[in-house]
Amino acid sequence: MAAQIIDGKKVAEDIRAEVRDRTARLASKGIVPGLGVILVGEDPASVSYVTGKEKACAENGLASFERRLPATATDAQVLALVEAFNKDPKVHGILVQLPLPRGLDERKIIGAISPDKDVDGLTPINIGRMSLDEPCFLPCTPAGCIELIRRSGVVMDGARAVVVGRSNLVGRPLINILTRKSINATVTACHTGTRNLAAHTREAEILIACAGKVGLITADMVRPGACVIDVGVNRVEDSTAKNGFRLKGDVDYAAVKEVASFITPVPGGVGPMTITMLLVNTTLSAERAAGLA
């Protein structure tokens, strides 16, 4: 029997409906959750992503405050915008769009964000809180993966989970989140340098692929009945496609869906969840600031 497809668009819309309920309650008290976004440079993907975030804020009861700088901006200029957002009571969440242009000190800039407004969960303090299983803002893409699993009814408590990938944005946070007591999975961390990768992945009841390598996970590497979450977003040239490329995941979707019990497609799986969890974190930040959470 083919796997049940986890519809990320549907799950994201369900969560956004919950966000709209929460922002409506805040609005009744005169509070509008505000997201401050800093975009440096003109990278087309970043510009498109920021535009999507602004649209999502407007549709779900949040305010968006955007500040743009040229690619030639200095650390001091970017840090000045971060500090202004830190001090602004209308801004409950701060997002510095990554990647930053060459020459800018990404760690220094991200580290300057107030942890209480770090709705992307990237500051060293929030990463430390996450590692210590303390309350914090969880990084948006990993948090979205967890919501997809949870809302599909897959039991994570005690489950054997394998994460293939070790990036600071997805893989490492997922390993930490899955081992939190509230989730309680048993986690194996793998990557493209892992010897005999298939021996590990075949043990997984929950398999999350986030290595950034097209088709890395094949059907023979998947335990029958596993829940497979594909975080990979890889551009593959395709002359028949309108843009000249198609998006492919890290999982051989067509083959693996015949083995797994649940699987996310690419696109339409994890992707829609990232901005959605950013809305969740920003709304939570506003609730905390108002003493409502």
Please describe what this structure looks like:
This protein has 293 residues and is an alpha/beta fold. The chain folds into two domains: 31-115, Leucine Dehydrogenase, chain A, domain 1 (Rossmann fold), CATH 3.40.50.10860; 140-272, Rossmann fold (3-Layer(aba) Sandwich), CATH 3.40.50. Helices cover 38% and strands 16% of the residues. It has ten helices and eleven strands. The strands form three sheets. The protein has a six-stranded parallel β-sheet. Helix 7 (171-178) links the parallel strand 5 and strand 6 (186-190). Helix 6 (140-151) crosses helix 7 (171-178) and helix 6 (140-151) packs across helix 10. The protein starts with a strand and ends with a helix. The mean pLDDT is 96.
How many H/I helices? Answer: 10
Broad structural category: alpha/beta
Helical content (DSSP H or I, runs of 4+): 25-40%
Overall morphology:
globular
Spatially, the strands of the biggest sheet line up as 1-11-8-7-5-6
| Rg | 19 Å
Question: What is the strand content?
Answer: 15-25%
CATH architecture group name of the largest domain? 3-Layer(aba) Sandwich
Low-confidence stretches: none
Question: For this structure, what is the CATH homologous superfamily of the largest domain?
Answer: NAD(P)-binding Rossmann-like Domain
Number of strands: 11
Major beta sheet, specifics? 6 strands, parallel
Number of structural domains:
2
Order of helices and strands: EHEHEHEHHHEHEHEEEEHEH
